[in-house]
Give the backbone structure.
Amino acid sequence: METSLASNDPSKGRVVAVIKLLVHGLDNGITEELSSLEWLLLQTKCDIKTTAPLAVGRMTWDTKPAAVVTYQVAPGVSLYQLMKQIGRLPPGPARRDMLSVFNAGVQTVARTLARLHTHSVEGRPGTEYLECATGHVTMIDTTTLHCSLDENGEPVGVPERDLGHFMRMLRRAGEQYGPARQEMQESTTDFVEAYLGNTAASPNVQIIRFLMSCSALSFLNYAALSDQTKVEMQVKILQDLFRLGEGWTQLDGM
């Protein structure tokens, strides 16, 4: 759980820090947070920018002990925030301009994720904050980064996970925030082109579809157990995931 800490100056209301509340682990939670940051910095030789931890502490949450880690604010915006801005705009030049900004960000994030793979690390598009003016990317939530292992226990990157994560995120967020199908198709194509243009890997389409469906099925199962009004939407998302990206010339023959 994360929350933003605003400035005490009411005239500005500027966010000055982000506090991550760890309710399911006290010392272990803090250790995991800090060790994941250290691991990423060591693996990438500081090639990937992250938010810096400012302080750690203990507190009580709902009568139970909890831990907190305070981070610097990541500069820029997330892809989710850009998608929300697209969804708020009516069809027209302004929406098209915002889509161009989003697609430029999509390409930057794709290149960053591909670069992570040179260090055998997988990320997900929601963990990057983009500075649109400079193209700089900052990683957050480093504990969510995946590191796949081969049969010998050595880290090995799986590009299909990156591609599958993005396509599922885009389709699910599209249902929530309003990008049209053609806009999602355009953004997906931009992501795939930028990603494959910055990696020597040859992703397998069937593995991508498998990982996407596994992720989507988890949301479908959650909806069936907790909110059946969303079951139909989750089924539609699952169906659409198998159609997203049809006709990509970059993936022909895989």
About this structure: The longest strand covers residues 53-61. DSSP finds seven helices and eight strands in the chain. The mean pLDDT is 79.
